[in-house]
Queue: 4 jobs
Job 1
Amino acid sequence: MADPFVKGRWIIFASLLLAMALVLIPLPASAPFELNYLRPDWIALVLIYWILAVPEKVGVPAAFCLSLITDLVVGTPFGFHGLSFVILAALAKGSYQQVRMLEIWQQSILIGVALMIVSGVQLLMMTLMLDRSSNLLQFMKPITSALFWPWVFLLLRICRRRYL
Amino acid sequence: MKQLFLARSNPRNQAFVLFLVSLILFVVDGKSAALKPLRQAAGSLVEPIIWLAVLPRLIAEQGSSFFELRDQQLELSELGRLSETLQARQLKFEALLSENNRLRALLGSSAKVSDLVSIAEVVGISPDPDQQYVMVDKGLNDGVFVGQAVIDATGLVGQVAESTTNLSKILLVTDQSHAVPVLSVRTASQLIVEGTGNRNLLSMRHVSESLDLKVGDLLVTSGLGQRFPSGYPVAEIARYQLAPGAAFSEVLAKPSSQLQTLDHVLLVFDSVKDLIPDVAVKSVGPADG
C-alpha cells in the first residue's frame, strides 16, 4: 500500500520544475526587453494551485523551501521570494475552502490582487533594505499572472486527477 | 494523540516566523557576503534546473543548424577571409606588442599589454529585468573566480558575480549595483561609471563642471581598484549637460559592448594581480616639466 502522503508527489515536483524552467527560458534576443515585465510568475501560480488543491501535502514550510530554490536559480538574494511565497501560501492555506467554491475568473481576480500585494511588499523591501530601485512595470506581472491562472488551473487539474 | 496535535503548529504562526526568516535572510544576503559560500555550494546542486531551461534552445540550435548547412558554408568562407585579414593585422600587432613591452621594461613598469582570455557561451539571461546579469557555461571547474573581468569583442561586459560548478552569473556593467573606474582616452580624466538598470545607459555621478568631457569621448577601464585590467573600452559619452546652478554636471554614456545581443563573452585571466595602472595614464596626460 502506498503512503497517501507520498503517492503522486512527483507530479508536484515536476510541475514546479517546469514552472522554474518557464521562468528561466530567455526570450529571443529580437524581442523587446520590456516584454520581460509581462512574463507571468509561473512558480507562484503552480504553488498556489497545489496548496488550494492538496493543502495536506503542500504547506507554508514547503513554500519556504521552494522560495530558497527559486532564489538560487533566479539569482535574487535569499529570502526575496520567501517574502512573497510565504504570504501567498499562508493566505491560500487559510482560505482554500472558500477559494475552491469560486468561479475560475473570480479566482483569477483574487490571485491577481494577492500577487499585486506581495510584489508590492517585495519591491518595498528591495527599495528600503537594499536601496535598489525597481521599475514600476513590475506591477504588470501580477496582471498577466492572473490572466494565465485559468490555463494553469485547468492543466494542473488534469494532471492531479490523473496522477494524484 | 495530544502530542501529535501540539507538534503541528498553527500555520499562521508558522507563516509569520518564516516570513521573518525570509526578511532576515534577504537583508543579510543582500547587504553582506556572509552567505556567498552557501549560495555557491547550494547553487551547484540546483544547476540542473538552469540547464533544463537551456535545453530547448540547444535543441532548436541543433535542429536549425541541420537545415542551414548551405548558409553555414557561406559563413565559413567569409570567416576564413576575415581570419586572413586579422592574421595580417596580427603580424603588425606582434611587433608592436614586443616593442611596447620593451619600452615598458625601460620605464620600469610591469603592466602587461595582452591578457589570457577564455571564451564562454551565454546560456541564459536574468528573468527579472531589474537585475542585469547573464549566465555563461563556464564555472569553477574551468577556473572562473568571483570578481573576474568579462569582456566581449567590443568592450567590457561586466564581472563574475557568482560561480558554481559549471555555470557563472555575470553581472553586467549596466546593473544598478555595478560601478567601474574608467578614464577618458582624450583627456585621461578619471571617472567612475555606474550602471543605471537600463540595458543601454550608464551614468556618472559627481562630475565637476571643470572636467574636460565631450559627447563621443571614449571611456576605457583605468585599472584602478585592481579589479578590471586597464585599457578595455567601457562606454562612449552620449550626453553631457551642464545645468546652470547645479553642483555637478549630468553625464550619460552608452556601453561599448553589445549587451542586448550577447551570445559569447571572454573571461579575462591572469591580468589583475600584476598590474600597475598609472603608467598608461601618464603617457596620455599632458607632458610634465
Job 2
Amino acid sequence: MVLRVRFESFKKEAGPTIRELKFIVKRIRKSPLSIVGIIIILTFVAIAILAPILAPPPEGWYDPYMIPRDGFSVTPRPPSPEHLFGTAEGQYDIYYGCIWGTRTAFRVGLIVVGCTVLMGIAIGSISGYYGGKIDEIFMRLTDVIYAFPGIVLVMVLVVILGPSLESVMMAIILVGWPTYARLVRGEVLRIKQEDFVEAAKAMGCSDFRVIVRHVLPNAIFPLLAVATLDMGSIVLTVAAFSFLGLGAPIGYADWGQMIALSRNWIIGTPANPYEYWYTFIIPGIFIFTFVLGWGLLGDAFRDILDPMLRRR
Amino acid sequence: MGLTTYVVRRLLLLIPTMIGVTLLIFALVQFFSPIERASLYIRDPRQARSLESIIEKYHLNDPPHIQYFYWLNEVLHGNLGWSKSVNMPVVQAIFEFLPATLELTIYAIPIILVVGVWLGKMAAVHKDTAVDHIIRAFAIIGWSLPTFWSAIILLAVFYGHLKLFPPERLSTEASLFVNSPNFIRYTRINTIDALLNGQPWIFFDALRHLVLPVLNLTIVIVAILMRVVRSSMLEALGKTYVLAARAKGLPEKEVINKHAMRNAMIPAVTLAGALVAGMLTGLVITETVFNIPGIGRWAVNAAIQLDIPAVLGFALFASLVYVITNLIVDILYAYIDPRIRLG
C-alpha cells in the first residue's frame, strides 16, 4: 500500500517527464531513419560488449587496446582467413583494431559527452538560477571560449597537456561545456519564472532541491538532441586528432589512428591502384557508420524536440 | 539606433573580446615555468646559456598580472616568438603560409555558398519529394563523413587511379618556373600570380591541384549550410506574406526567389561563424592530407613537434580572423535586417 502511494505520487510528480518520454518514443517509432540509427548504434554496442569474444587478444597480452602485430614488415597484407581485414603498415591486425576501436569510440564519446553535459548543467543552472556576478563571470568565460574556432583551442590545450588520447578528450571537455551551459541557462531562466518554482520556494525547498527536482527535469530535454549528435561528432573530432598524430599512440585500437597508419598506402601499385584499399576503407567505414548512427538518431530528436516543428 | 552607431558599438565590443582571448592564451602559457617560457623565444641552441638574460628581458619572473602587459606589448609589436619547426619568427611564418590557405578558401567559399544555398532551397521547395530525400541524404552523409577519410578516398581515386588531380600546389615544372626570376610573385597566390604574369599554363596547373582539396572542403561544409537553409526556407514558405504573394498571382519563381528566399537568408547568415570554424577544421586536415604548405599544415606540424610559440600564434591569429568574420557578419546582418539594429 505504502509502495503504491509512493508510486502514485511519483507518477504525479514525474508526470510531465514521463509524458514527454512517451511522446519521444512514439515519434521515434514512426520515423524509419531514426530506427536505422538505433539499429546501427545497437550493433556497435554489441560489438563493443562482445569484443573479447569477437577478437580475443593473444594469451597474456599486456593491454587489449594495443593491436597485436604479426611480424614487423612494413607492407600491408590483404585480407586472409588469418587476418580477416588484412594487416596495416607494421602488421597491425585491422580486424582486431576495428573491433576494439569500437570500445575506444564508446569510451571517448561517453566520457566526453558525459563530462561536458554535467559541466554544462552545473554551470548553466547556477548561472541561470542565481544570475548576478556568478552569471556574468561564467558568461564572459563562454564568450572568450566562443571567440576561438573550437578546434584551435583544442589543439592548443592538447599541445600544453602533451599529445595523447586523454589530452584530446580533456581538451574537448574544456572547450565543449559552454554550448550546454548556454542551453541550460536559457531554459533555467525561462523555467524559474514559472509558478511551480515559486510554489516550491514558498514551501521552503532549498535552492539545491528547487534546481535539481523542479527546474532541471524541465530543462534537460533540449540537451538530448545536442548530446546525441555530439556522440558522433566528438568521436569524429577525436579520430581526426588521432589521424593527425596528436591523439592515440601508434598501434592503439583507435579508428583514426588506424587510418593514419594507411597514409603511405593510399596510392597502390601501377598494376592495381587500389591494392591497399583495406588499410583505409575498412576503418573509415567503421567511423562513418558510427557517426551516421548517432547523427540519424540526433536528427530525429531534434525534429521531435524543436517546438517549431513538433506536433505537426 | 542608426547603422553607424551599431557598427561603432560592435567595433568597440571587439576590444574586450580580444583582451579576453589574449588573457586566455596568456593563462595557458602560465602552465610552463619561466625557464620553459624563456625557451619559447630562443632561436639558436647556443642561446640556451643566456636563458637568464631572456627571462630578464621578457620579465618572465614578474607577477603574472604585470607579466601579462609586457607579454601583450610584445604581441602587439608582432613578436610572437620563434617557430622552431620552420625556423623563422611566428609572424613571418603566418605570412609565409597564409597564401596557400587563402587560395583554397577563395575558391571554396563561393562554391560552398552557391551550392549550399541552392541545395537547401531546392530541398525546401520540393519538400517530401524524391529531390528533398536525396538532398537530405547527402546532407547527413556529408555530416558523418570524416574529412580525412574523404580526402584519402579522393586521392586514391582521382590521383592514384585516374591520375587526374595530383596533391600539393604545383607540378614540378610549374613550381620551378614559379620560383624562377622570370615569374614575379605578387600575391603568392599561384592562380592570381599566373594571370598577372600572363602564364595561363601555370594557372591551369595550379587549378588542377586545387580541385580535390576544394572539393573535400566543400562536401562537409555544404552539408551543414544546406540543412540550415532548408529549415529556414521551409519556415519562410509557411509565412502569410508568401501566401499573399501567391494570392496576388505572382509567378512561383518570383515568390520563392524574392519573397521567401530573402527572408530565409537572414537566419542562414548567422551560421557564418560556424562555417568559418568548420572551414578551419577542414583546412587543417585537407592541407595535411594533400600536402599543401598552408597555415593549417604548419600548425599541425608545429603541434606534433611541440613548437608551442607556433601553436599559440596560430591560435591568436585564428581567433582574430574568426572574431573579425563574426563582426562583419553581424554588420551585414544588421544591414539586411533593420530589426536587429533597432532592437
Job 3
Amino acid sequence: MSTFLETISMCCLAVLMVSGLLCLYRVIIGPNAADRAIAFDTLATVFIGIICMLCIAWASTLYFDAVWILTLVGFLGTASIARYLEKGRVF
Amino acid sequence: MPPVTEIIIAAVMIVGTFFVAVASIGLLRLPDVFCRMHAVSKAGTLGVSLLILGPVLFFFTSEWGMALRGLLAIGFQFLTTPAATHLLSRAAYVTDYPLTERTAVDELEQFLDSVPDEVVGQE
C-alpha cells in the first residue's frame, strides 16, 4: 500500500543514488584537487535531493533542517578549498 | 491533498532529478575541470532548487514554517553556488590546471596571469 507520491519519490531516490555513485567515481579518479572539490559539491547537491525525497516519502519534516544547513556548509567548503588552492592558506 | 497538487509536486520532483542526473553525467564525461564546472553549476543549481521546491509545496498547507525554510534554502542555493564555482574555477585557472587539448581559444590568458610558483604559500 503506497500512495502516488511515495512511488514517485522512491523512483527519484533510485536515480539520485546512481547520480551519487557517479559523483563518487569522479571523486576517486579525479586527476586533481579541483575535480575532487567540484565532485564533492555535486555530492552535497545529491544528498540534499535524497533528503527532500525522504521527507516526501515519509511525510515528515524531521530531517528538513539538514537541507538548509547543507546548503550553507557546502558553500563554505567549496569557497575555502578554492582559497586554499589559490593562496596556499585558508584564512 | 488534491490530485492536481500531487501531480505538480511529482512533476517538479522528476524534473529536478533529471537535472541532477544530467549534472552528474556531465561531471563524469566532460574532458576538463572547467567544462565539468559548467555542467555542475548550471544543471546542479536548477535541479536542487526544483528538488527543494517539492517538499516546499508538499508541506505548504500543513507546516508553513518548514516550507519557509525551504524557500530560504532555495534562495541561499541561488546565491552561493555560482559564487562558489566561480571562485573554484578562478583558483583552478590561476594555479595552471591543464586545459583540454580541444580548447580552441583562451581569452582569459591576457587578463589573468597565472601565479608564479614562489608566491603561493606566502603573502
Job 4
Amino acid sequence: MGATMTIDANGMNYTELNTRLRAAVAQGIDEVVVNNVLGQRFIADGLKGNIRITLNGVPGGDLGMFMSGPTCIVHGNCEHAPGNTMDGGSIIIHGSAGDAVAHSMRGGKVFVREDIGYRGGIHMKEYQEKRPILVVGGTARAFLGEYMAGGLIIVLGKNDGEPVSERGIGSGIHGGEIYIRGNVQERYLGTGAAIQPYSAEHRDRIAPIVQEFSKALGMDPQPFLDAEFTRICPMSSRPFAGKYTWE
Amino acid sequence: MSIGAIPSRYRIRIDRDQCMLCERCIESCPYGVFRKNGETIHVDSRKCTACHRCIAMCPRDAISLLEHPIDYRSHPIWTREVRESIYNQARTGKIILAGMGNAQPLPAIFDRLLLDACQVTNPSIDPLREPMELRTYIGKKPSRLEIRRTPEGDLDLVTELAPNLEAETPILIAHMSYGAISLNAQKSLAMAATEVKTFMGTGEGGLHPSLYPYQDRMIVQVASGRFGVDINYLERGAAIEIKIGQGAKPGIGGHLPGEKVDADVSATRMIPVGSDAISPAPHHDIYSIEDLKQLVRGLKEATEWKKPVFVKIAAVHNVAAIAAGIARSSADAVVVDGFRGGTGAAPRVFRDQVGLPIEAAIAAVDQKLRDQGIRNEVSLIASGGIRESADVAKAIALGADAIYIGTASLVAMGCRVCGNCYRGLCPWGIATQREDLTARLDPREGSVLVSNLIHAWTLELSELMGAAGINSIESLRGNRDRLRGYMLDEGILKVLDVKPVGA
C-alpha cells in the first residue's frame, strides 16, 4: 500500500475532480495530491474513507461538505463553509477561510492556521462520541459559535490584538464550549452565552487539541499552552423553554 | 388580582344509564379528564381536548361532548378566540403555541372551484374499461430530445435524462419528522407509501434504522438544523428535499422541545437527550438564491447526481418569483406549502396570519414558470390543506404535478384534528413519544388505513378524470379550462386564470 496519485486540477470541473477522488478511494489509494486547485467547490463532498488529500491552491466553497473520514490539507486559503455538515475526518488549512467555517459540523476537526470570517462554527452539534472541533490560529469575526449545540471551538489569537472583537459570540448557544485566548469583553457575548471559569481541568482538556493543531500546522504550541483562555458556555440547553404558552 | 377561570372549551357528559363502569375512558384519556370516584366516573371537562379517544373506545356510546358549552356575549369582532388569547397572554406574557393548520374561518378557494365533466359533444371515459394513466414522474423534463439513428436503423436517445421519481399516483405523503410524530406513525406511513408505490417525506428528524426497508420510498429532508443529516442518510433516500419554509409558519424555524427528545429521537437526530432541537429560521449557508443553488448542487455532488433534489418553500406573497429562482438552481422540484399546512407546533399568530392559500400560490407559480419557459425544469408539488380527492384534481388542474398530504394521512390513522400535537400526549399514538400511547398505533393496521385512503382518492381521481374525458394525469395538469370559479372575485379568478361559472 502507500499508493499515491497526483491530479492536475487546472481547468477541471468539481464533478470530475470528485469523481477522480472517489475512484482513488475505491482503488485503495492512500494519498492524493491535487495541484492547481482554483475555486472548485464541493471538493471531497460526501467522500468516505481514510484517504489523505493535499490541495495546493485555493478550494471553492463547501470543501469537505458531508465528508466522512478523509483528511484534506489545504496549502492556501479557503472560501466559505469548509467542513459544512461534515461528519468525520479533518480539514487542515494553511491559510485563512471565509464565513460559516464548520457550519453544522457534527464530527471531525477543522484547523485553520490564520483567520476565519463571520459565523464560524455556527450550529456545530455533538452526539455521543462525535464531538466536532474547530481551532482557529488567528482571529474570528462576529457571531462565532452562533446557535452552537455541541462540540468545541478554540480561537488561539496567535497575532497581536483581541482574537474576537466583535459581537454575537455564542448567540443562541445551547450546547458545546468556546475557548478564546485572553479576555473577552462581556459586551461581545450573544444572547444565551455566558463566561464560565477557566481552570486547570479545562486547560488539560484543550491542551492535546492545541498540541495537535500546532503540530499539524508547524507551530510552537508553548505560547498557547501557557496562555489564559476565556471559556464561553451556554446558559441553558433549553433556550426557548420559557418563550411559549399553550393555546 | 385574578380574572378567574375562562369558560371551559368543551363539556363531557356521561350517560349514567349507559355507563357500565368499564373504565376504558379513564385508560384512554392521557389528559386526565376521567377518574373513578367510588361507583361513578368523575369528569373534569376542563382538561378535555376533544380528541375523541374516549368516545371512540366507549363500548356503550355513553359519552357525549359539547363544544363551547358556555356562551360569551356574541360579537363579530371580539370573537371568543380573540378574547381568550388576550386572557392567556395577559396571564403569561408569552407567545401562544398552537397545533395543526390555520384555524381562521376563511373560505377555502378549493370549495369555490368546480370541476368539469363531459356531456354529448365529447365522450367521457370509463376507468373500469379504459386505461387511466396516473403514474407521475417528478423531476426535470428535457426541453427537447435528441435522437440518433443507428446504422442498423434503431433509434438511440442521445439526450441525458435527469433522475425522476416514479410514483403510481400523484398523491405523496408530506414530511412529518420522527419527533413531531411517533415512530409507529412514521412506519405506518412508510409501509403505506411502499404499498401504493408513492413516496413519503422523513421531515427533519433523521431516518430511524427501522425505516431502512422502506428507504426507496422515502424523501430525506435537509433543513436548517441539519438534524440527522450525514452522507449515509442522503444516500438512502429516493430523493432529497431542502426545506426552506413551511406553510404553517413561514419565515420561522422550528423547535422540538427537549422533553420530546428521548433516547431514540436523540439517536436519529444525532443530538443529546433532552436538548432542544432548534431549526433556525434561515439555513446558515443560504442567504441568496445563488447560495441555494450551491446547496442544491452540494447535495447532488454528494450523491453523484443520482437523486432528484426538491426545494420546499412556504407560499408567501412573492412565491412565483421565488419559485422561478429555485427552478434555475438545478433543483428538480419545487414544493409549495400553503397557509393551511399542518404542524406539530407553531406560534398561533403565524399559523393563522402568515402566508397564502395554496390554490393561488400554485396557479401563480405555474403561470410564472410557463411565462419564463422553464416549467419543464422543475416539477411542482402542492402541499398544505389538501383534504379530499377533489382538492387533488383541482390542485393539478391549477398546475401542480403532484400533491403532498400530511394532516389527511394522520386523520386516516385516527387523528381528530384536536390541535394539541405540541403537548406530546396524542391519545392516538401519533404526535407523541410516550410508549404507552405510541403502542396504541400498530404500524400494520395504520399502514392499511393510510394506503386505503390513498388508493380511494386515486380511484376517485381517475373517475373525475374519466368523467372529464381525460385519460392521463399529464392532460389534467395545468388544464384550467376544466375548472370554473363559483363566488370568486375577478381578482382571484385572474390569478387562478379560471373562468367564472357559466362562462
